[in-house]
Amino acid sequence: xxxxxxxxxxxxxxxxxxxxxxxxxxxxxxxxxxxxxxxxxxxxxxxxxxxxxxxxxxxxxxxxxxxxxxxxxxxxxxxxxxxxxxxxxxxxxxxxxxxxxxxxxxxxxxxxxxxxxxxxxxxxxxxxxxxxxxx
Length: 135
Hints:
It is a single chain. By secondary structure, this protein is α+β, with helices and mostly antiparallel strands. The chain is built from four helices and five strands; from the N terminus they run αβββββααα. Strands 4-3-2-1-5 form a five-stranded antiparallel beta sheet. A hairpin with a 3-residue loop joins strand 2 and strand 3. The longest helix has 36 residues. It is elongated, with a radius of gyration of 29 Å. About 7% of the residues have low confidence.
C-alpha cells in the first residue's frame, strides 16, 4: 500500500513539473520561432546583441539588416532576432499620429536658446577669470 502511494506522489510531482516548467517554456519558444519566421522586409528589429536596424532583404535562414546613418548592411541569422519593434506596414500609420505632440515640445526650447545660455555662461567664466588675474 505504501509503495503505491509513493509512486502516485512521484507521478503527481512529475506532472506538476511538466505543467509549471516545461509546457510554458515550449509555448514561449513556439511564439518566438513564429515571430522570427514572420520577420518581413521593412520591419525594424532588435537583435540579441542589442543592434537596432531595418530588414532590407530576407532569405530562408538569414536576413539582411540596414543600420546607422551610413546605411551599413550586414547579413545575420534569423535566430539572432530578439524583438520586432515595428512591422513593415504599421509604422506609417503610427508615425502620422504621434509626431504632433513631440514637435510642440521642441518648439518651446529651441537649440539657439541653449547655445546662447552656454555662450553667456562661458563669457561669465572668462570675465571672472580676468577679474581674478587683474587682482
